[in-house]
Amino acid sequence: MFNRIKTLTLMQLGNKFKKRRIKSKKQYALSLFFKVLGVFAVVAVIYLLLSVIKGVIFLPVNRTTFLFLLFFSQVISVLACTFDLVESLYYGKDNQILMSFPARHHEVFVSKLMVCYVGELIKNAYFVLPMFVAFGLINGKGLLYYPNAVVLTFVLSVIPVLVGALLSVFVMGAKQLLKRVSWVGIVFAVATVALLFLLAHQLLSKLDRPIRLIEVYNAFITKAVLFMQKTNEFALVYNNFAQAAFNINLVKNYLIISGVVVGLALLVVLTSMPIYFKMASFGGEHAVTKKHRYKKTKQRGVFATLLKKEITIISRSINQFLQDYILVIAMPIVLYMLNGFYWAMAPSVNGIKMIACFNLFVSLLLLTASNTQTASAISSEGSEFGLLKTSPGDTKKVAWAKMMINFVISTIFIVGTVVMLGLLPNVTNYYLWQTAVVLVLVNSGHILWSFQLDLRNPQLAEYSEKKAGAQNVNKSRSVLAGMAMAVFITIVAAFFMIIDGSQNPWMRIIGISAGFFVLRLVLFVFNLKVYFKEIEG
Amino acid sequence: MSTLIIFAIVAVLLFLMIWFFDVRPKKRGESKQTVSKLKNFKLKILSVGLVVIYAFRLFSVDVIRECISLVPTDALAGFSPAGLALITILRIFTNVAVILAMMAPWYKLQFLKNLTAFFVTATYVANVFVFNWHILSFVGVQTASTLNWRTIQFALECILVLLIGGMHLYDKICDKNFAGFGKQIVVMLLSIVAMCFAVLPPESMQTLFGLPDLVANDFEFFHRIVIYATFGVPVAIYFATKNKEYALRDFVLTFLSICAFVTFFSLYGSDFTVSNVPLHLCHTAIILMLISFVFKSKKFFYFNYFINVIGALIAVLIPDVTSTFFEPGTLQFWYNHMYAVFLPILGVALKIFPRPNLKMMKNAVIVFSAYYVFAAVVNTWFANFDPGVDYFFMRGDHVLEFFAFAFPLKYNYIYTFDFAGLVWTIYPVYWLALYIGFVLFTFAEWLVYASLYKVFDDWGLLYRKAKMQKMDMLNLKKEMNGRDITQPLSPQGANMIKITNFSKKYGGSDRYAVKDFNLQVNAGEVFGFIGHNGAGKSTTIKSLVGIQSITQGKMEICGFDVEKQPLQAKLNVGYVSDNHAVYEKLTGREYINYVADLYLVSKTDRQQRMQKYVEMFGLQDFIDNEIKSYSHGMKQKIVVISSLIHNPKVWILDEPLTGLDPTSAWQIKECMKQHAKEGNIVFFSSHVIEVVEKICDRIAIINGGQLKGVYDLDQLKKQGQSVEQLYLSFADKATKKFNFAKEG
Amino acid sequence: MNKKTVIMLTAIVCVVSVILVSIFGQVPNFQTNVLTKQITVQGYLDKNGKLIPCEKNKAGENIIWLETIDPGETTIILRWGVYPDNATNPDVYFSTGVDDGSVVVSDQGIITFYSASRTNCIVTIKAKDGGLASTRVIIMKITTNDDSSGGVEL
User: Fold this and answer.
1) Which pTM does this prediction carry?
2) ipTM, two decimals
3) Is residue A225 domain-shared with residue A110, that is, in the same domain?
4) Between chain A and chain C, are at least 3 CB pairs below 8 A?
5) Domain C38-141 is of which CATH architecture?
6) Which of A257, A285, A313 is the last residue of a domain?
7) How do residues B474-497 score in pLDDT, each as one tens digit?
8) Nearest to B211, CA basis, from B76, B69, B66
9) Is A318 helix (H, G, I), strand (E, B) or coil?
């Protein structure tokens, strides 16, 4: 059994971490050396951050802070592991291969947990272990602290995997339910957004005005420490980890930790493992075959038909849509909260200018990061791009169809953001519409730029093979370009508003944004005309 | 006395023209080329002499520099404002003329020769006529009355320039070739105006217009105009000259480098102290630029390109001057730095010097480091004689005004020691920080350059490709010979597929995937295309349907060239791909309608055909389900239906029966036969020989990217040869050996 | 470069922006930091805890007369007030200007004489908030003409 589990695990690990084949021992040693160097670099960074927290922010860097950070990071790990395991255990494409092997289902189950554990261990090696070491250095811990930290890291990585394995059953159930009654998902999403907005509004109304951070700083630090202490009361077994790390009742804490791990493992063995195969095959056996109502046939132009196709596909892939646009959907709430805080601080004239610049920066960061969908517009066609190449008619219009959707959604949320900002006192309409114009122009220019990146370097083969799981270098280029534009426009805005002190800075900012948009439009039109036909499917 | 001098000049001039240049009717037997070469050589000698003579004037002080707003100073008492204005304007023209005279013998440019012949000669003739005024403007009333070395210098200068200009004029007259001269006059006039601004004597504006309150600093309006000009002028020069011959581009930039030198050093005669030795980075830039362009020195050029451009740009953005713009020193500052910014960039943009690489930048940093150490030593040394010494801002606070946080770096770490009777004060931490900051800027500059190269290359490629596409369209119209481009290019091929010498190479590969492929498929045929995996079947088909490009050769569908008339060709093609790719989120009906829209099929036709094929393939119950719920065979059927929805003349299928159950395979085969019976072409590829044998009329065999043969199946049957035997006969030796062993 | 990086960057920018606006972009709080403008000496407590007001000399300064000075025993507990009442930091500090330990004043304004030869001292009371408010209290032993040592310049 152990051999089979080992074989299955190694096979999956080989597939997951397939990188350059290491040809020699020297290369392996070199690769290991660089990885260790990377860990040390992270230690240095965390140490510096903790020094700043201690020496500049005056937050105590002790066991309380350590436990808080550990607990917070592990909560995120548990959530991440849960969703990873749902995908891997129940929706994994390799299930078809693994289940057909001469191995028992629970062996496949254990191998998948092992793979998740290895991934978790690597993540913790790059974050939790450096955090342990940095805390040890700051608090002047003895030599025994460090090997103890290594052991604890290994043990710590088990817990999110086991908890994730337990929770994955419930998440899987919820997913199946949502598939059947999809309107529940939409209602849930809308309710979450509304709740977040109400929460934001409530929090802001509770703030004492004007907020003077410098003056309430000491009180803020005290409150922060109290908050950490209160949160740590819910830390459960992580409390024991922290105590063990700081050499408090070492044996007792190790015993508790071991007990918890064993208990969780038993729970997994008794609950998740037996129903694994049924859950894994549930998706396939109960696939929802949706019948769509037959609509009257209409003849459409090329652009209209391409647009209709895009809208149809998006409406039937809400999850993907939300994934692509989550940042732009969150933008109104983020900006509302941020500005609520700004305006509660009684900003001076300079402060108002700074707020305008920061609003542009944050909005553009979120907007442009959501244009990754356009940065893979051509690539995501995959093999279907052949149809566009073989069709007569001006199929270049697919570019405009795909960008239209991105543009419309972004603009809707820009307007939404501006409307929400208008709810705040002291924010003038003049400022709002100018901000909106700048955002629309820059974002539209960025959409054109993102599409152009994919047009010049389409990853059709990658998407044909892997579909939604494909890596596309154009996406990261698009994000980088968006960041660069956000920085540039913010610097321009800061220059005209604060440094230059000109009478009409907004007109100049709008002028520059319009110039950027026109430049990108002209370049895009030329590129589309020249390079679309050169794409080989 | 002035009359005497004028007569002397004329006499010497005439003498030299006759004796030195032998301006007489040609001797018999002398070749024109030899005479011309000799004359040019002599002109070059004169040009070198002119440089030396002119240098004396360049480094001298002229009293006219004190005049403001056409008000003569005491030294120029007697000059009227009109006279002052005239002499000032003449001095501007003289600056241009003397540089043109220096450069004329070295460039074989008709434009330059015309300028030298007419403008240079005219200017210096005028100079001779107002010779005395010039001397007055140099030395003032008191000294001008006596013979002084400035008089001699200027007289010599006039003689040399008039010789050069005169010879060019003489050649022009002898040539008698004035074709297109009218147009050239306009260009020459515009060039003269531009050149006047390029080599404006720094005191001219003050003399003519006084000192209005125009300060270019702190990003105020006027400062921004100057910054725009710093970028706008080189852009204008670039577009004006980028398509001209190399000699002209070289001349323009060399001229500008000389202008930079002249405008900078023309103020050097006055107020020369230890603190204005040209050791400032931007001052060395002026000297190095002259050497770079005149002697084509790459080392000096790239040092300027990497080190001086950034320094000059910083100076343009945060200038060290607060006085009014027309003040000679201020004008000199702006000219100096603007030239230092754009001349090196133009040198690369106009391809006088090739684009640099990172190694050159590193070399430039090494040279800069040496300069920096030298400047530090000189600063410390000369500070003993003039506290105002501040080369590269190493002693002053100009840089610190913008980086206030660095004040402690300078003033907290001052070290002083005595050596050789002098006091040496050093600021090691500040100097180190300044050095590191500048080097970092240089690396950042490299990133900017690299990005700009990429952008410009990209734009250049885009422009060329767009132009090529336009040319292709024009060529097509020519080929059509007055017919509409929507008509077939080859009307005789209206009912066939014709492939002529088709070859295909992928990307950067040297290997041909398909080489010299020739084929003709006629209407009413079911044509099979067989070959092993990787033989080139899909490559050929994908090029035929327009998914991939054609490296060489020609492909025609129904007389339409696939490359030149893609839209018309595609309208006649229905294609079933080998990967059966469909949009899985769409229903079957939606997908077919989508394809029908792309192929411009009318509502009536598509409904009829959809109904027919859906019934034929038995998809009635599934047509409104999402395609992702279909089996492999159902997906294939949807693709088949969508490929036939526009009833194409040519139906191309790439391995259509792969993975299908027998019923589905049979249905598709029947469809293929039916479609061919209706007078259409069915062209499909397969590596399943049995299928090919059953339904095809003719086949082609491809192996290793080459067509091995086209065969009629009926003929093969009559000969008693099976397709399998035929196919295997083209298989490689290894396969044959295996078969032989198997059979044996 | 992916969306996670953008999310992190946005969070950092939000926090940094709030800090920057609070430092550089807020209207100054004119109501804070009310400085002490004046320190008044109300008097001193006698043995019975009764408040005895100080006398004033010709210059209008507070003066306390002592009949006897018993080293280690003679103490004067000063009572003082600050003006305005809403001064942000009403604390004061005391100094005698005497280093020899013959007279010492505590932070609570308790003056103790440790030497019989010390017949007088001047206690300076200054505001701790860095303002210029200060006052002096002169403590003098009532002397006959013979007592002339240990004096201090008034």
Assistant:
1) 0.76
2) 0.78
3) yes
4) yes
5) Sandwich (2.60)
6) A285
7) 999 998 888 888 888 888 888 899
8) B69
9) helix
